[in-house]
Structure formats: structure tokens, C-alpha cells
Amino acid sequence: MISKKSLPLLCFLLSVFILGSQTDVDFGPNYLQEGDSGASLSDTISAQNEFRIGVQAYYRYAFNEAINSFERANSFRPGEPLILDWLGRAYYRSGFEDTALRQWAFAADRSSSSSDEILLRSRVETVRNRRSLLLLMEEGQRYVEAGRYPGRIGTSIYFRQPVSVQPLNDGTAWVTAYTSNELIRIDVNGLIRWRVRGPINGFDRPYDVVRSPDGRLYISEYRGGRVSVLDSDGNWLSYVGSKGIGPGELMGPQNLAVDEDGYLYVVDYGNRRISKFGPEGNFLFFFGRKGGDFNGFLSPTGIACMDERVFVADGVQKQIHTFDRNGTYLGILVEEGLIGPESIRIVKNYNSGLSYGSDLNNSSALSSGSGQLLVADTSRILLIDPESSIVRELGMIGGNARIVGADTDNNGNILAANFRGDEVAVMNSAEDMASGFFVQIDRVVADKFPQVTVELSVQDRRRRPVLGLDQHNFLLTERNYPVQQQEYLGAAYLSSRYDISVLMERSDHSALFMDDLAAALRDITAAGPRVVSVVSAGEIPVKERVGAGAAALAAAARNGNYTPRWRFDTGLRLAATDLLAGEKKRAVVFVGSGTMGELAFEQYSLSELAAYLANNGIACYAVIVGDGQAGDELRYLCEETGGEIAGLYRPSGVGPVIQSIGVKGSGSYALSYRSSLQTNFGRNILPIEVEVYLMERSGRDRITYFAPLE
Question: By CB count within 10 A, which of 42, 213, 317, 321 is most buried?
Fold first, then answer.
């Protein structure tokens, strides 16, 4: 029998947990309530408490603590789908993807909501597939039109006859418009963000646009017989060349290329030759006239530079020829199979696959045999292997199309300038179109409730960040209704700030190179990042207590214990964890000999380390000291997380490699809104769902949070 004294307390507890279960989240009517599961009221109370602790730990990046709390909550209420979903999220962010997949599969099996089951199974399928996916343009893969940036709609004309595209790191692209005499900048939604019409006298039929290693833009002017030089923002600076037939003069310049040292190559169409200019615009020489084994050009069109080679297409001969950078003819690369080749661009191959984006199209990013040629050939897009001369058709545009220029962007698209169609076609692989986006809500900040901030990341099926999204691409909903006062706060890719943690190898071998370690830390600091922590990977990895400045960091390398039992895995986890609450552009920079040691993966496997970094947006970089070479495991980590490997004494130094962290893409976004949900004094668990749309692709995620207790 219940006494009169205990009755008010019991009624209060029941009201708290019954009201607390009325969350408007469709995870089943008995979420954490006493009911069919047979759990007692005390178990329900314990599960509620542990679940809340777990959610709060997750949002402050304490993933191990979150796992422990969710496991305890699950022990009190076994099989609750919402607990299992959160448990999977915590394991995923901790790098234990196999365990996360199991939890999500269990949650899907027990879900009483079809929409939640679909969301969970989609997440499982995406994560499982991309773990085994080779990031190559797979044999037989086809690209289809995913959308278009129209130059005219009805009677409204926005630009006319696009010729060339130059994608940028922020998801936008420069496009030359031949007939409207302008250079325009288009975002991922097809909106024109900027128009450039050149100097006072304007452009005279702009044709191609390329970027130099220092960020300047070169614009060929077909009728003007010259090349305009612009800064990275599109401000006109100067001319290269002038109209004529003599040395350094141009007649109908078309396509352009820049090599890794900043030398400019111009297809001088009217003079049927290639003119080469220095980085400052000084004329050097021309080549491509008839002589020796070469019969001369009939109609030179596309051009690209890779390593020491220059590839030039001839539209009439329907061939691609190869020269060295001094203009010496090397032979025919492609002799048949072409219809009317025009532009050529370089796309980069890593060991693990093909990378996209204009920052990778610069020859300075390429190594021998590491790139392929993307060729616009009438209405087709071709991929050509420069080593084997194998030609493969990636896709085509229907109708009376003429693709004059094509390039790849950082979102995995091919942007194709359709001259006849007055549009830029956006092409993507059929597989990517079908899979949509992988959207993950990373964090919900509700300390100023009802004002709520949502941080999320958007990736494709290959783990590439999706860049260039803005307020047009996001929809936040509560209980299936759009939220109030949704506001786009910004994207991480627009920020130049970045954080690093330095991981120092403390092996007995690296002890021989203490001066190199000190020099590496000095150079890394001079590059300008915010150094969050310096971790010494000894037998027990520890954080160094170092003061500000390069000297203090360099001194840390000369102190400490060096041991053959040094631990790479725990050191890397420690260094990475320090970055979780910082900038979205971030990396662990490992400084060592390149050899990992026999205890490198004793506690955490290589795949778990790669997943921990990748699932939290942390890249792994390596600076190799002494005469060492990076081992396969280190190369794998860097490739899987988007990092790089550099020797300490490379000619350009390690500074540019570290600074590249600040310009790499990040698919992290932030939005805010005003919630209309009832919190029950902070006891209710509140839902939020985000949907992301871009052309024909979409993705969504749903998560829950608590408002502050009142």
C-alpha cells in the first residue's frame, strides 16, 4: 500500500517521465517508459539519467564517456532504438565503425517508425559501402547530367556561349562567357555571384581561364589577340602578349595551361603554334611548327601540362600530341577514337583513387604518372590515361551540344561548358546520384534555448566534403514542420583559420635526429597554424608543457625520453582528441622517421585510427626527418584522411604543406533557429531534423537534444 506521504513524490516522478517521454520523436510510443519491455520504474529512471548524461557528453566531444553512459542506459532498457542509435553515433565518432554499424542495424530492426528505419538503414548502407569503396573512377562508371547552370531562362539572358570553367576551392567556378564578353563566378546553386568585364576597354571575346600556382588568373582573349592577367578576386592587372604574327604575338589565342613553375602556355590558334611565357609575362619561345617527326598543327585546341610533359590536342587531326616543356616533340598520345577534341584538364590520381577540384588540377600537385586527362570531345567527356593512351568515355550531353571546356570540381562533379546550349552542365556519376548525401548532425547547442544552433557535416558516398552550400540548401524541421527563424551562420570552408596538434616520434631511432625534429617544429610553427598541443609518442604518450613560440617547441624536441617501445596509436588518439573542440579545419602533424615501430597499432588498429580521424574531420599529415621514408601504414592514414607527406628538407620547405590545411575543403556548416517545442523544464528530449538539397541529390539526418534544466 502506498502511504499518503509517498504519493505526491510518486505522482511527481510519474509525471516527469511520462511527460519526458512525450518528445514528438517517432521512436516508438514506449520510449523509456515503463511498459512492454518489463523494465521497472527504477530502471526507467536510471536509463533516463544515463541517456541524458550520454547526450551531453557526446555534444562536448567526450565520446568514450558517452559510450559508457549509453551502454549503461541500454543495460537498464535493452533494445531501445533511440539509445541504440545514439550508441552507434558515439562508436562511429570514436572510430569503431563495425560496432557502430551493428548498433544502427539493431536500432533499425527494433524501430516502430518506417521513416526512422529507412534513415538508419540508409546510414548503415552508406557507411558500409564507402569503407570498401576504392575512390577511383571505376571501369564502366558513367556520368549523367545532374543539373545545369542556364545562361538564359525565357527572355532573360544571364550569360552567353560559355567556353571554359575553372572550379574553385569554395565550390564556386569561374566561367568565361564568349559572346557576353565577361568572366562570371557561379555558385553550386547556379547563382551568379560576381561578374568581371576586364579593364576599362573590357574583354574582347574571352576564351579560356586558368589559375597560376600563385592564384592569379589568366584569361585568353580570342579576338583581342592577348591574355589578360587578373588577381585571384578577378581584378585586372596586366596583359601578356599582343596581337600579331611575330614572336610573343598572338592571333586568336584559345586554350591555356600553366606548369608547376608558373610558366604559361598559350594555344596560338591563328599562328598554329604554342607560345610559352615566363611567370612575369615575358615571352620565351614558341613551338609546334612542322619539323622533324612532327608535321605541324592544323587546328591546335586543348592543352595541359603534367610533370615535364605538355599535351596538345588538334581538332582537325583528331589527335593528342606530346611535347616536353622545351617544345621538343615526343610523339602522338592518342591517334584515333576522337571526334573533335577541345579542352584538356588534369585530374589527379592518389594511390587510393581519383581526386577532384581545381586545387588538384595545378601541375604542382602532381607526381609522375599520377594524373589523367579530362578531355572535352564535341558532346562527350573523355578520360585518357597518359601512360597507356587508353581512352574511356565518361558521359555525354544529349541534343545539339558542343562541350568546349570541362573540368572537375571539389564536389565530384564535372562542369561542362556547353557553347551551343548557353549553359554549364553539371555531371555526376550515376552511383553518386543514386546514393545522395551523407548528412551528419555533429552537435546541437541549446544553452540559450529556445535559440538553438546546429552544427552539421555534409559528405558524398566517397567521404568527400560537399562544398559551396548556403541558406538555399538546408531545411530544418521540428515535428515535420519547418522551424522558426532559420538562419544560415556559415561554412567552415570559408574560414582561413586552422588548428593542428603535433605528434613527435620518441623512438630510439628518432633520437638520432633531434636537431631535425627541432627544425621541423620550428618550420611548422612558422607556417602560422594554431598549435593546440604537442604530444610526445613515447611508451606512455604525454602532452608536452611548452610555452608560446617556435623556440619553446623546438626545445621540447631535444628533451624527453626516447624508447624502442614508443606508441604511435595512443599518441595519435591523444593528439587528435585535443582538436575536436577547435576549428573545423584541423590536422595532426606527425613528425618522425616514417617507420611506425612494432607497438604502433597494439591498442588501436590502423583502420580504427583512420576512421577516428576521418569521422571527425581531422587530416593526418607527416613530416619525415632524417633519410627516412614513410611506411605503407602512414601513407594509408594520410591518404584516407586527406593529408599529405613531406620531407623536412624538400626544396619548398614544409611551410606550404602545413598552410594547405587552411585552404582545404571542409563540409561543416552551422545554422540556427528558434524552437517552438515544449521542454517540460528541460526534461523532454527534443528532436531536430535537417534535410540537404542540391540539384537532384539530397540527404538528411535526425537527432535529439535536451534544453537546459530549469
Answer: 321
